[in-house]
Amino acid sequence: MKTAMRGNIRPFEVMEAFRQAALWEAEGNDVVHLSLGQPSSKPPQAVLDHVVSELQRSALGYTDACGLPALRERIAQYYQQRYGVTIPTQRVFITVGSSAAYFLSLLAAFDAGDKIAIARPCYPAYPNIMEALGITPLFIDADEQDGFQPNIAQLQAVGKVDGLLIASPSNPTGSILSPQQLQELTRYCNAHHIRMLSDEIYHHVTYEDAPFDTVARMDDKAIILNSFSKFFLLSGWRLGWAVIPEDLVRSYESLLQSFFISPSAIAQHAALKCFDHLDEMHTVVQGYARNRDMLKSTLEALGFTGLNNAQGAFYLYANITNFSHDSKQFCHDMLREANICAVPGVDFDQKRGSEYVRFSFCGDAKDIHTACEGLRKWLKQRQSLAS
Ligand SMILES: Cc1ncc(COP(=O)(O)O)c(C=O)c1O
User: Mean pLDDT across the stretch 323-333?
Assistant: First the structure.
């Protein structure tokens, strides 16, 4: 029977690690999760109350394929208020998570056979989805001391490309491209007819007033991806958005209509209400900063290296070479022997990732504390067994 080559992509190890942890939990073990990037905090109570009243008030049918007009307008306003950038509402599209925004952006802007440059380590679904669509990811092996973010010389070195995908703050490193670096990359891409995709889903999950900016300010041909999953605390509601350049608006709309009909109506009502409660979300981010400090100082004291400051997002990407050169085995042992679930770097970087592990710190402070204690005990045991 016929099967398609398209489906022949690498598994998403983060989800695999999560599944392994669930199986281990089902055997009666108490696992501390430092794997998925999903906030453990609930959305503000006012958002939940609003959702309940919407459920009672309306039949919640399909919405416009591009999203509720009020939500699209609210997002356009958000760009004005937060970044001082004017975005026409018709360029804002609501999607099923930023995952769908990304996938449809590839469909709208690139053909099979096109090439897109991307720095690694990177969010694994990026190259996986490119490959499923016949697009070739050209990897830039970015430097640890640059937070694994790309620069123009590295971009030139990969050869001719049709697109550049950047993510700032980055998953898995939390590093941020400064507004000046973004300007330089944008200018270069414009001059060389390279379509930029800018993943901005960790915007506002930032620490110590780290400066960040939207590429929407710099390049009206760029595709901007964003999400309600991270800062807005709505991961399981599956809602994101894209700011689409004028020349792709018509095809993006047609793709949305045929692929999804519309995004979830109730999730859109929740999202709209979130904009009235941004302060509560900023308070949650302050908690992540405390988690990061606790986890980072523990990891460093234990001998993990290469930790940049994670100025944004909620991950630490730690070099494990003082313990192992096989991050998959290391994570497997950590789950089985210490009940801690983290993700092997091979998911983010097939070349160098066997020497790195990603720890997520968006959980409860209590869980981060438990994980720090567990890691201390486990590594001590490992060392005494080895000596
Ligand atoms: C960098 C990055 N982009 C995109 C996504 C997809 O997020 P969602 O589809 O929930 O918006 C994630 C999820 O963790 C991510 O880390």
Answer: 95
| C-alpha closest to that of 315 among 181, 185, 122, 128 | 122
Residues contacting residue 93 through CB under 8 Å, at least 6 positions apart:
66, 67, 72, 101, 241, 242, 243, 244, 252, 253, 256
Q: Which residues pair with 315 in a beta bridge?
A: 360
Please, what sign has the CA dihedral across residues 79, 253, 197, 128?
Answer: positive
pLDDT(309) > 80? no
**Tokens 């608006």 map to which residue?**
249
387 pLDDT more than 80: no
Question: Is the pLDDT assigned to residue 2 strictly greater than 90?
Answer: no
Asked if residue 153 lies in contact with residue 117, where contact means CB atoms within 8 angstroms, the answer is no
Neighbours of 78 (CB within 10 A): 17
- Mutate which of 103, 149, 165, 171 for ligand 1? The one with the most ligand atoms within 8 Å of its CB, which is 171
The residue behind tokens 């509560």 is: 280
Q: For residue 179, what pLDDT band results from cuts at 50, 70 and 90?
A: very high
Question: Ligand 1, residues 38, 94, 99, 173: which to mutate, most atoms within 8 A of Cβ?
Answer: 99
- Residue 213's nearest CA partner among 70, 335, 82 is 82
DSSP 221: T
Strand partners, 227: 240
pTM of the model: 0.94
Report d(CA 334, CA 323) in Å as an integer.
12
Q: pLDDT digits over 94-111, tens only?
A: 999 999 999 999 999 999
Pairing of strands 115-120, 92-95: unpaired
Give the nearest ligand 1 atom to 171 CA: 1
- What pLDDT was estimated at residue 10? 80
Q: What angle do CA 377, 381, 383 make, to 5 degrees?
A: 120
Please give the single-letter amino acid code of residue 290. Answer: R
Rounded-to-integer distance, Cα 288 and Cα 265, Å: 30
DSSP codes joined into one string, 338-353: H-EE-EEGGGT-TTTG
Nearest atom in ligand 1 to the alpha carbon of residue 239 is: 11
- Locate the ligand 1 atom nearest the alpha carbon of residue 96 and give its number: 9
For residue range 80-97, what is the model confidence (pLDDT) as tens digits?
Answer: 999 999 999 999 999 999
